[in-house]
Amino acid sequence: MGVKYLRVVNRDRCIGCFSCMYACSRMVRNSMGSGKASMRVRSYAGLEGAFSIRVCARCAHPDCASACPTGALITAPGGGVRLDKDLCISCKTCVKACAISALQWDEEEKQPLPCIHCGQCVRYCPNDVLALVEDGGTEATPS
Ligand code: SF4
Ligand code: SF4
Question: Which of 6, 60, 76, 126 is 20 to 30 Å from 134 by CA-CA measure?
Answer without folding.
Answer: 126
